[in-house]
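#dry-run=false #mode=assembly
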Amino acid sequence: MSERELDELQKRINSFKQPKIKPRDITHTIGAFTVAIELVAGIIVGLIIGLFFDRMFGTKPIFLIVCLIMGIIASLKIIWQKLNSKNDGT
Amino acid sequence: MEHSPLSQFEISKLIEINLFGFDISLTNSSVFMIISCIIALVYFMVAFRIQNLVPSRLQASAEMVYNLVGDMLNQNVGVNGRSFVPLIFTLFIFILLCNLLGMIPYGFTVTSHIAVTFTLAMLIFLLVTIIGFAKHGLHFLSLFLPKGTPWWLAPLMIVIELFTYLARPVSLSLRLAANMVAGHILLKVMAGFVISLMIFLKFLPIPLMVILIGFEIFVAILQAYIFTILSCVYLNDAINLH
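#status=ok
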């Protein structure tokens, strides 16, 4: 094998070794199912954390309400991000 | 209640085992998990028993599955992700086989139970958190503060980001379980309509059922893929912290 051929081969090996980072298309697809699941997930997390803090400090509904609102905002934020990333075409 | 569409998700104890007060009975769920593990082990052992440079059909199929996961990690995590191939590969094969075993008649869909999927999601979540803290130390907490946040909004943003981070395993497990449950219930309800529909439509409903089952198999593979690729994305967040 000549020097030139070896260089060629090394270039090809290097190109295989450096993976190109493609845009994550499948994870950012948004459908009705995704929206529903993200909403439910946020509410469940808020509910569990709120109930936990309420039991710890004995302040029955305060933390539950605050954490539930936070959870809903968080889940809306996830959906918002996914919608935005789809509109950019990335 | 014998033919309820939900009766396929019932867990029944096959062998009762009671260990120090803990109920670790062998259920139909655990039997199907064991079967999927055995299938995966036997398949890859047979496929890679004789390793040729020019692969046989079986070896080529096994290498294709491996490359799928390897490329997934390469594209989503980068070069540092190569060391997580064994974990992600095991996860993918386990979920894929559990989903597909649920598609055979009288099979039990293990992944239709949130107890199973949440355990898998929690494994990924804890791993990602531990890796993030081990790799970046306390700098990992900068994940919770997006760049360019005004100082007066920072406390609120930190709480919201923490909630989105904690919602990950819940949404990950819910997505897989809900998809499998919805698909299997739909399949059984539709199959219940077939007999009465045949009075009017003759033999048309049967090919429709075949199409529906084909779609369900597609969903089973797709959901295993989505679960795996989302784990890769979460790993990427922990490893390549920006």
